[in-house]
Amino acid sequence: MPVVGFPFFIGTGFIMKGSRIAPEIRARLIQACERIVGAEGVVADPDELRVYDCDAFTFLHRCPPDLVVLPTSTSQVAEVVRLCCELGVPFLPRGAGTGLSGGATPLAGGVIIVLTRMTRILDLDLPNRLATVEAGCVNLWLTKAAERHGLFYAPDPASQPACTIGGNVGHNAGGPHCLKYGVTTNHVLGATVVLPDGEVVRLGGKVSDAPGYDLVGVFTGAEGTLGICTEVTVRLMPQPEAVKTILAVFRTIEEASNSVSGVIARGIIPVAMELIDRETIKAVEANVKAGYPMDAGAVLLIELEGPRAEIEAEAVSVEGVCRQQGCLDVRVARSEEERALLWKGRKEIAGSFSRIAHHYYLQDAVVPRTKLPQVLREIEEIGARYGIKIANVAHAGDGNVHPMICVDRDVPGCEERAMQAGSEIMRRCIEAGGTVTGEHGIGLDKREYLRFMYSPADLAVMHRVRAVFDPAGLCNPGKIFPEEDERSAAGDSSHRGSAVSTS
Amino acid sequence: MSVATIPCGDLRAIVGAGFFLEGDGLEAYRLGGKRPQAVLLPADEEELSKILALAWEEDLGVVPWGGGCHQAIGYPPNRYDLALDLGRLNRVLAHEPADMTATAQAGIRMGDLQRQLGEHGQFLPLDVSMPERATLGGTLATRLTGPLRCRYGTARDLILGVRVAHADGTITKGGAKVVKNATAYDVTKLYLGSHGTLGIILEATFRLYPRPEVERGWWLAAPDLATAQALANRILGSHLVPNRVELAEEVAGRACGVSGPGLVVSISGLPETVEGQLVDLRGMAGEFGVAPTELGDTATTGKALGDFPWSNAGSGGQGLQALWRAGVPPADCAKASQAIREATPRGVVTAMAATVANGALRGVFRAEMLGALVQSLAAAREALVSLGGYLVVMALPEAARDGVDVWGTPPEGLSVMRRLKAAFDPKGILSPGRFVGGI
């Protein structure tokens, strides 16, 4: 279906089948890859390859790769990449496959280079508060390793127990605590990158501001289209002296979002300010009993970190702002158990939703913080207009909204209406001065929305960058950019919205 | 080098006669001994775009110009037909105090920008040297940093989006006006620190911070640099949230009003929280036998450290001087300072300071003889490279240029950088030859 005007993504499941490379090429690939990484590092069985037919963006577009290779070193990655170049076969990197925009889903086959056998922490450099890890190192492992020394790694995406640092670099991952500490790009100092032609370069490193263009900066968040990073050097931060977790309960979502603006306007930057609306509270309480009041219109989960005296003072201000907005109750977690329970509610939202909807489309957009009340009101109106339940959670301090659009596939037309509602939400967010993704990335999911943010000239600059790194267009083709702008014509323009199946 | 003929009439027509400078007006725009053929001061984006389109057409070398105070950095342009002075693009375009974001044009002086943001009790924590002259655009194009990066990061962390004029006059944007964004490539990062070789930054949107209620600073005099470094490591690895931790050896210390070697540490926030952190700071200093002495005027000392070494403060006498910046792993600042001092020949006056959190050193060498100056730079660079670091010469006497490669050994990835330059500016008209590797 050609996309005309603003995309109303309508479609049903679409699974691509079969190899798109000639059998003799595939045979050569298998043989050569087995030589490079050993037979145990090559997945060629069609049934096993189906495991890799999508990442955590599970809807609508799936396509198994022709081959999966699991190297154990940078030089093996480089050899596999050179092999792909030689044979003209597309390739893409994959970490844990927890991405929410289809960045690690093959568009039309090719080789997936999976980095989950490269998991070592190579260097925990305590005096410099830096760590160098292999790309497949799990985010949480790094924080656990650093914790023993009073340090931590700040970016904390929800998939933290599974997702890899390499994948975090690919998507410039965020997380609830990024409000104060910044997202992945703010913590990455260096990367060993296998360029799309197989050349290995060490970009940046332990030393800041070395002369030259900031290639690490542009590589981070490029979703694996500019090469494959195999090692990453990141900054670690000292653990704060004290933490305070506050639950503020509101009658309306508007009061809650006004409180967010009020806190920020006072110059207080909590580590997290999570907004959870009525629908979500209901789902969460039915599931984990986090103690969110069932009669609330919305709650704010606010966390302050820093020197003890500072957060004590800030907590008083935060409470004052919330009271001024007419909040019903302010509760401060008095123990680590209470704190963990409050966060459990937030972290179990995705799982809890399976209780109220079979499927939901998880959106991700950012608006200026002061526009939150308006945008959340508009999202509510959109939901009402389409007759669809939309629950809202937001990293509200950043203006990062995550509307969850509930889909009942048994109701005819529901899925289409959900898609349309999602599109309209995106448009509202852009009109409010925002962006179409704060942390999930574009991947396959949001390519068509790019045009609503960036002019053809803006996008031409990005294509220029892409062509410099990957002139052959073999490195994760078809991602980020609107499809007809990319040479890889997979003939599939029927994909749409970001959907997560909970069933 | 052949000199291109510039279409004076057409250029003058774009900006108006009053903003087209020739003759004596060019003297202030000298770079590496070269004067441009003309200086243009466009009133707005549109005029600037037209100038570039014409320069592109006629294949003229163009150097963007802000305050001019950091233009000594880099190689002199190998073609220098036009200087494009952004001084008239000097407005704050938007300031959303409640969002803590603002957008300003590139030609605004940092000092003016801070005063306007200050009306709402906010600031952009980029404490570049000479803020009354330095512009926002120049600060971003050079990506120079100051001591406050210890707490607030650099332009990399603070800039959310930019508008940029390209070699052919096309204007594009990168990034957005919100504080979090994962939408396609972060091209903004490429322009920051590119010294005007990929495009000319026209405006930038950035995150703001509240001006702290109080700021207090202390001088922590240490018996030697190694102790100062160890204490800095202790502070930076702790729960304290200082906004500056500057290591100064004696000469730089004197230049900034303290007597080194030691650390300048400052903490900002609410009065009671600063007091609380001071108690802990005293305890940590005590572990090293050091007692903090409160600074009389933290803002002034902070500014002196930010201006160092450009300020020329503390220059003992006449003679030749070279300014440099360097990077090493954060815990090696003292080691690097010592290595530099040992490497420089007798008779060369050396002053150095470091933002310890980021391993960012900067300093000045002064010598009577050119040879000693050149020798010092080479020896210092060698010492730093052996520590895994680098040294960039920011300013030096013209006569020393032949003996010194100001950028030093190009970094890994140079071939990608060259291809980027070729893709962004295929005719090579923007700041030609000024950057790393002659880009």
The CATH topology of the largest domain in chain B corresponds to: Uridine Diphospho-n-acetylenolpyruvylglucosamine Reductase, domain 3
Tell me the CATH superfamily of the largest domain in chain A: Uridine Diphospho-n-acetylenolpyruvylglucosamine Reductase, domain 2
Question: What Rg of chain A is obtained from the alpha carbons, in whole angstroms?
Answer: 23 Å
Please state roughly what percent of the residues of chain B sit in beta strands, choosing from under 5%, 5-15%, 15-25%, 25-35%, 35-45% or over 45%. 15-25%
* Beta strand count of chain B: 19
How far is it from the N-terminal to the C-terminal residue of chain B, by CA? 17 Å
Biggest β-sheet of chain B, characterized?
8 strands, antiparallel
Text of the CATH class of the largest domain in chain B: Alpha Beta
| Alpha-beta content class of chain A | alpha+beta
Helix content of chain B: 25-40%
Number of helices of chain A: 16
Q: Total strand count of chain A, please? A: 22
